[in-house]
């Protein structure tokens, strides 16, 4: 990606003679250049312009692709009528010229200029600007990273990710945080060619790269100043970076909770940071593409993207999909957050099969606080707001008589809540803001009831007064107690950090499938720790400190944004242990070894206590210890996705936009692959036509013992009949590939009434269990299972 600043509609600053020649040739050769003069002072907007492929430029005339793209912009820009004083946006027309992620460029254009461009044979389309959003200690032990070789500690077998470079796209980084201390770190590998815009005292062998991408966002967000350095006062980027690859920091805690040594998933991996998002503004599509473009050439091994868009179009329009495919071509795995708009169906984002889509689950750590009622009943919630001495006396307990949500200070004062504990429903404002209002009203403490949709899951935050956050159903018990007595009382008992709680549970906010853009591919792929995650931050938002108190450098946050860097870090460990593995192989290793039961050996549950569906957890909860040695993998190269895209019904132009800079293809001249037959670690069958039977093909690659035999085990309900042929896979060498077919049909011979779930396992002795979830769903009629999913025009 070339980022150049072009005054008015000017060309890049080449030699004068060359520039004159370029202009003369472009004006003569491009029909649009001969149009009648138009008003360049109209409304300019950012557009992503896609160029037809194959469409080569003359390397004798153009220094590079950037100069060619600049000439295309100049061909529709009437420089003679450019009025710089009246149109400040004309200062920079060519924003980005892309090399890897897409065949095209980003530019400032008027609708009239876009219309002129559309008359050229090189033009495919111009997409208007779009904004994406961020999907916003103990986990190394939880995921089996710690421990010696005998105990199976992954850090021991992967050298903590040493030499692996994780690229993070986020909203800024606090480079001076102790999680980014480079002491004891080796220099980055020789392939690293990126840059760090901080000075040498800030950049080190841990944080090896840091850059800002702002050229597109600045036009949309008036008043947003060029950050110069990739710093902001938000928490997100620092938190995700330290989660993926933070160095060890002893004594990490938040308000005295979760005390311990903090460390990222891959504490010896290097971090390359790319700022593409801005607090309360989002992440501009064209800046995201530019950052991925550079990251791939910089030499990253893993890309971690905690951003997405629920309204994204097909794979050819989405920067995560486009960048993810280019990354796959470079051997780079993309770990992408699955979204935070659950638990509704079809809310998952970043659904492309060449990225690993990550949902969120809980950990086994809780910050327990008990509400003791005057009736003698004790009810547990969670808190990060323990005072030094709350006392043992029972206090009057009241419920907000206004809207119930504690949002009106005048109502609270009229209630005379001084010295009392008040219970507040969810809604109206965030609880930390309510706490300030309640404190001003004189209350001694606050009970916050979580939304019903959150079930048993609590996302605690520090508050300015003693606060206990309660699950919805427990909150109803407290309300019932208030109604049962004329003088209700309560007290808080703070119990601190407690481990070995039931986990994981699917996070209520974690977005769910099915996959809207490719129904035959199960998404999310996997879930990871994403609830109440302790990691580095510049400061804790909304935390009131005493005169001599020091701002903590760690905070607890929740979201699929927190889960994705966990998977990125685990991927870095696998990459270190298996440097030749493809992104698909690394992804397969995590998916086929994921846990589908909790720490009580029961099926992972959703927030309502019922077993979580595959649409909530994908293949299950990441198990790093098993993923480092999976036995078998389902491998794919970037080329293997092309027949799949053709099978989805994508037109040649869109396929070629996605696979750029690979050679152009014509779907009509190549075999198509049904979604079900993409060599994916999960299996999805759409039974929508008689006889309601489908055969699915898979190829397994042996990465375990050279000589090994795997026997199949199938676990499905009686409503399904599943046959696997052959029933045994007998390998004689490492990297040997064996094929098998799975035939799925309904036992009744009729269409399934609803979604059916099962699983297939390849078992070799007591060491290897390679599991694939089986998802069977009814079709909508009129289409074969092969064609279900998006079929872009």
Automatic annotation (TrEMBL):
Origin superkingdom: Eukaryota
Residues of the PA domain: 396-476
Signal peptide: 1-36
Single GO BP term: proteolysis
Keyword Signal: yes
InterPro entries: PA_domain (IPR003137), Peptidase_S8/S53_dom (IPR000209), Peptidase_S8/S53_dom_sf (IPR036852), Peptidase_S8_Asp-AS (IPR023827), Peptidase_S8_Ser-AS (IPR023828), Peptidase_S8_subtilisin-rel (IPR015500), Peptidases_S8_3 (IPR034197), S8pro/Inhibitor_I9 (IPR010259)
Principal subcellular localisation of the protein: secreted
Domain Peptidase S8/S53: 161-598
UniProt-listed SUPFAM superfamilies: Subtilisin-like
Protein name, UniProt field: Subtilisin-like protease
Source species: Oryza glumipatula
Lineage: Eukaryota, Viridiplantae, Streptophyta, Embryophyta, Tracheophyta
């Amino acid at each position: 990606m070339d980022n150049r600043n072009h005054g008015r509609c000017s060309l890049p600053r080449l030699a004068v003679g060359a520039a004159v020649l370029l202009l003369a040739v472009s004006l003569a050769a491009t029909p649009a250049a001969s149009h009648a003069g138009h008003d360049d002072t109209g409304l300019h907007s950012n557009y992503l312009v896609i160029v037809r492929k194959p469409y080569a430029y003359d390397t004798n005339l153009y220094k590079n692709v950037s100069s060619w793209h600049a000439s295309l912009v100049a061909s529709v820009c009437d420089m003679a009528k450019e009025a710089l004083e009246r149109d400040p946006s004309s200062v920079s027309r060519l924003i980005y010229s892309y090399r890897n992620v897409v065949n095209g460029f980003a530019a400032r254009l008027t609708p009239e200029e876009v219309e002129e461009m559309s008359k050229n044979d090189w033009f495919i389309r111009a997409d208007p600007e779009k904004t994406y959003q961020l999907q916003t200690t103990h986990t190394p032990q939880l995921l089996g990273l710690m421990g010696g070789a005998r105990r199976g500690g992954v850090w021991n077998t992967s050298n903590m990710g040493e030499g692996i470079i994780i690229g993070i796209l986020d909203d800024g980084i606090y480079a001076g945080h102790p999680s980014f201390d480079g002491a004891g770190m080796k220099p980055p590998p020789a392939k690293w060619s990126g840059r760090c815009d901080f000075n040498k005292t800030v950049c080190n062998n841990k944080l090896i790269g840091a850059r800002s991408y702002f050229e597109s966002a600045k036009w949309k967000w008036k008043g947003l100043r060029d950050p110069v350095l990739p710093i902001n006062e938000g928490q997100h980027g620092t938190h995700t970076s330290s989660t993926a690859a933070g160095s060890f920091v002893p004594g990490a805690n938040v308000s005295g909770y979760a005390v311990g040594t903090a460390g990222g998933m891959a504490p010896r991996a290097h971090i390359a940071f790319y700022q593409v998002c801005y607090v309360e503004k989002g992440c501009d599509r064209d800046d995201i593409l530019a950052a991925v473009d550079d990251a791939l050439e910089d030499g990253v091994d893993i890309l971690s993207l905690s951003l997405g868009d629920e309204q994204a179009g097909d794979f050819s329009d989405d920067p995560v999909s486009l960048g993810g495919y280019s990354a796959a071509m470079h051997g780079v795995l993309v770990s992408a957050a699955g979204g935070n708009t659950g638990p509704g169906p079809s809310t998952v984002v970043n659904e492309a099969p060449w990225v690993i889509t990550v949902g969120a689950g809980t950990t086994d750590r809780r910050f327990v606080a008990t509400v003791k009622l005057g009736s003698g009943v004790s009810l547990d919630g969670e808190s990060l707001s323990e005072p030094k001495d709350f006392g043992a006396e029972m206090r009057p307990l009241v419920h907000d008589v206004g809207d119930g949500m504690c949002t009106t200070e005048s109502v609270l004062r009229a209630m005379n809540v001084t010295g009392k504990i008040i219970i507040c429903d969810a809604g109206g404002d965030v609880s930390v803001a309510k706490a300030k209002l309640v404190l001003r009203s004189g209350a001694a403490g606050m009970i916050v009831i979580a939304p019903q949709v959150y079930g048993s899951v609590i996302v605690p935050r520090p508050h300015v007064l003693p606060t206990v956050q309660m699950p919805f159903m427990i909150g109803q018990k407290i309300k019932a107690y208030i109604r049962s007595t004329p003088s209700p009382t309560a007290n808080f008992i703070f119990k601190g950090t407690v481990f070995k709680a039931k986990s994981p549970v699917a996070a209520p906010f974690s977005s769910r499938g099915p996959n809207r853009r490719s129904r035959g591919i199960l998404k999310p792929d996997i879930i990871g720790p994403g609830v109440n995650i302790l990691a580095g931050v510049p400061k804790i938002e909304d935390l009131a400190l005493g005169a001599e108190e020091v701002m903590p450098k760690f905070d607890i946050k929740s979201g699929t944004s927190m889960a994705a860097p966990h998977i990125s870090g685990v991927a870095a460990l696998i990459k270190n242990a298996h440097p030749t593995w493809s992104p698909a192989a690394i992804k397969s290793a995590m998916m086929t070894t994921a846990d589908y039961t909790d720490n009580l050996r029961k099926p992972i549950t959703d927030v309502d206590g019922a077993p979580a569906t595959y649409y909530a957890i994908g293949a299950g909860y990441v198990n790093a210890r098993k993923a480092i040695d999976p036995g078998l993998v389902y491998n794919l190269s970037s080329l293997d996705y092309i027949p799949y895209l053709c099978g989805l019904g994508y037109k040649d132009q869109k396929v070629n936009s996605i696979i750029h800079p690979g050679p152009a293809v014509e779907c009509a001249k190549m075999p198509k692959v049904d979604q079900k037959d993409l060599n994916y670690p999960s299996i999805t069958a759409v039974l929508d036509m008689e006889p309601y039977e489908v055969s699915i093909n898979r190829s397994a690659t042996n990465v375990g013992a050279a000589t090994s035999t795997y026997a199949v085990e199938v676990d499905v309900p009686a409503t399904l009949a599943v046959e696997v042929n052959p029933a045994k896979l007998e390998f004689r060498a490492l990297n040997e590939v064996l094929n098998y077919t799975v035939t799925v049909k309904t036992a009744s011979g009729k269409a399934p009434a609803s979604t059916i779930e099962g699983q297939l396992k390849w078992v070799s002795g007591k060491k290897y269990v390679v599991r694939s979830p089986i998802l069977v769903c009814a079709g909508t009629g009129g289409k074969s299972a092969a064609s279900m999913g998006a079929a872009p025009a």
